[in-house]
Amino acid sequence: xxxxxxxxxxxxxxxxxxxxxxxxxxxxxxxxxxxxxxxxxxxxxxxxxxxxxxxxxxxxxxxxxxxxxxxxxxxxxxxxxxxxxxxxxxxxxxxxxxxxxxxxxxxxxxxxxxxxxxxxxxxxxxxxxxxxxxxxxxxxxxxx
Length: 144
Prior knowledge:
By secondary structure, the protein is mainly α. The chain is built from 7 helices and no strands.
C-alpha cells in the first residue's frame, strides 16, 4: 500500500476552505474537500482511519481521494474526461445488414427473428467477427 502524503499550498488550502464554507457544492465534493484538508501535512495530518471514521468513508476511499489529488491537484473537483469508445461494432454498414436480416423471412420453424439469431447470422455472413444480441437490440432500437 502506497501512502500518499500531501502538503497543500496556501492557494489550494484557501480554495478548499472556500468550498467547505460556501457549502454550495455536492455532498460528495464537500466530503472530498474535508478529507484533503484533514490530510494536509503542513497542518496536523490525521491518519486514514481517523479521517475515514470522521467523514463516514472507508479507509480505501480516503486513500483514493489522496492519490487522486496527488495526481490531478484541484482538478479532482472536475469530472474526469471520458474516452470515447473506438471499438464500436455497429457501423452504418452493420446496421444496414442488421435491418435487412430483421426484415427478411425468419428462420424455418420460427415466427420471428430472435436477437441472438440475427447476431449469429451477421457473424455467419462474415460482416462482423463477433456481436452480442444486446448490440443488435441497440442497433434496432435506434431505428425506431
